[in-house]
Amino acid sequence: MSFLHSFLTTLLLYFTLLQPVYSAPHILLDRTGWTATADSSDDASPPSNVLDGSSSTFWQTYSDPDPEPLPHVLIIDMQTPNLIGRISMQPRQDGSSSGNIGQHSIEVSSDGSAWTQVALGTWNNDDETKNSTFVPRPGRYIRITATSAADSTTDTLTAIAEVNVYAAVNYLSRSSWTVSASSQETGGSGSQATKAIDGPLTTIWQAAYRSGTTPFPHWFQIDQGAPVAVQGLSYVPRLDGATGRIGQFEITVSNDTETWVSVATGTWADDDTEKLPQFIATARYVLLTAYSEAGNRGDYTSAAEINLLDPSIPAYTPPDPTKGIWDHTVDLPLVAPAGAVLPNGKVLLWSSYARDEFGGSTGVTQTAIYDPVTGVSTQRTVTNTQHDMFCPGISMDFEGRIIVTGGDNAQKTSIYIASTDTWIPGLNMRIGRGYQATATVSDGRIFNIGGSWSGGRGGKNGEIYDPLKNSWTLQPNNLVAPMLTNDAGGVFRADNHGWFFAWKKGFVLQAGPSLNMNWYNTSGDGGGTPAGTRSTDLDAMNGNAVMYDAVAGKILTAGGAQSYGGDTSRTSAFVITIPATSGSMPTVTPTQNMTYARGFGTGIALPDGTVFVTGGQLHVEPFTDISAAFTPELWDPTTGTWTQMNPMANPRTYHSIGLLLPDATVLNAAGGLCGPGCVNNHWDGEIFVPPYLLNADGSRRSRPSILTIAVKTRTGVGDATDSLAGGQLGISTDRNISSFALIRLGSSTHTVNTDQRRIPVPAYGNPALYSVVIPSDPGVALPGYWYIFAIDEAGTPSAAKIVKITPCYMSDGNPCSDDYPSATSNIVTGACQTRP
Ligand SMILES: [Cu+2]
Q: Which residues cross the membrane (predicted)?
């Protein structure tokens, strides 16, 4: 008996430990007794105003007669340490924008002298509260440094109305709980009270309804077994619908179930976000009473999970560096559902006509260019292309230009040229599209298919853009029908976000998200042929597909859901191997499943051949963060296994993006664009530092450097004297290199990144001169701009140099000139390739 009991306990613990965690709650800290100091202030606007709870007062730096120069510094002393996870800053609310902060950094400290940067970036010039959420760090002091004004280059004032601080909080253990409810539905798969404390978000407690509902109030009682200190409750509504969301509620506590004390009341919004009412109590019994249904849908009450919040400050354990580290949060001046790495190593980001909202065909797009080196973003409103670029297709062409097609202005094409920092209009598409995917193909043209989200529904067959001629040509035989998913949303969703991989001789493999794969031949009028199915997978809308080894034709797929919204995503993962010959059948094999189910996540090819999959959510639904996967996973192709990495601080779900940065870290950003004040807007990104850059103590490893890089001139391309498969780069380094990797610069929107692909390259030579041989086929080494990383014997990658790989022949059949243009000094003209 005791053996059985201990076995069952162990089993329970086992399942409890393995349960994926889809939340990261924070509580608002009480500011009583806190102090604020600043480098400068007006007598009438002291720094203490940021803690006074009044939005109409603010701290302002000295202004009369002459404002003092930037930077300005505000320091808050919370008097006691806490595990800080979020800082919120409310700008002045009196209608003036003078003093609004643009560039800034936020740091925390335990002693007021050693500071850790937790956020860095640029805030937009508006009066909305700015939230910087970061991986929790211990601290007593907070320092906000303003280095530029948001509204002008001459304003040197700084002003802040309020600063609030949120702490990370743990749920109390539920292992000793017994729960009961006013009623529970036992029909169907069972919606007993215990389903609200069992872990999975997909199981729920529901008040009985099948044989008739009972009028409100409905209650849910927790018996903790003994009095326990509590500082709040967590209520997670059901994922699979709205019915039964609690509206008006009360929380009462008791030690004997006779005498109850009310500790919290209120009315929750009719949405699926986690509700976190805060209170302080020590009690054995906690009773959650529902007095109404949030949407007045009837006498229904339901809950996915109910937890209580632990009042003790969570113990701080520094993140295990073998699981990577999320460095500072990048505050961005817009919510960016789209982004692309530029040939100069900066990141182009854009939203829609507004920085936090979309709607209509406005002809305007808000953009920003984020510099990963300085952390600063510069903003621009693009009007000259008359293109609202919300939810478009994106491809980088052979010249490194970012070709943005469709979206809210469904037929428009806009082109960003980094070397001149200009946007120019391209020719309109023949078919209006939004949510299509595009792919640069081996001859330099850009294939485009699908996209019923915008510009009318259905019939979105292929067309192709020739950047040299600025022309769009319909390809009537590249039919969209074979790539449609069976989506509950119908054709509006069924042709969205194709997984396209350009391959040899102008072919494109459409590897998903439909279970059916297809080859598209982009010559002439086009022509599609079936390419089999993805093994035991299903339609995987908003899953990820990453070409982690283009030489071997290897693609990892991960996650996705049958339907775009209102569905449950999956953990499944597969490896697709594209055969050497375009048009032949790919092979598909299952690999280990992820721990976390993900739709709307992002997949990124890393230099060492591993694939980083981050973000996404279990229950896929646009503009929600419910059931977000905070724990990214890293897939190793040599073992076919996933390793959970350290969790990030911000959910990255619908409209999030992920990009490999030149320093071999990853930017995982954005999510939302759901209008002013929407809680699912994420005006930020986080920087993930993969394990390959970290020492055992968490410090950064010494990394190799690429010292010089040059194109080795080739003669006799393709003839008998050509002993190498492709062009070559000559590279000198500061140490022994075990391998190189080429990774094409990425573009990211809506889970799609058809630009990134990785080419592993053996290291021939020695640090004085390594030869890096580029595959000869432009269907493999797709021309354009690529990172090149040198990886040392410890497996540590260098920072990338960015090289341009050029084809010998463009789509017009003419050879490229020898002096092919190069944009900046660290970009070298890449080696010549044989004709496709
Ligand atoms: Cu979108």
A: none
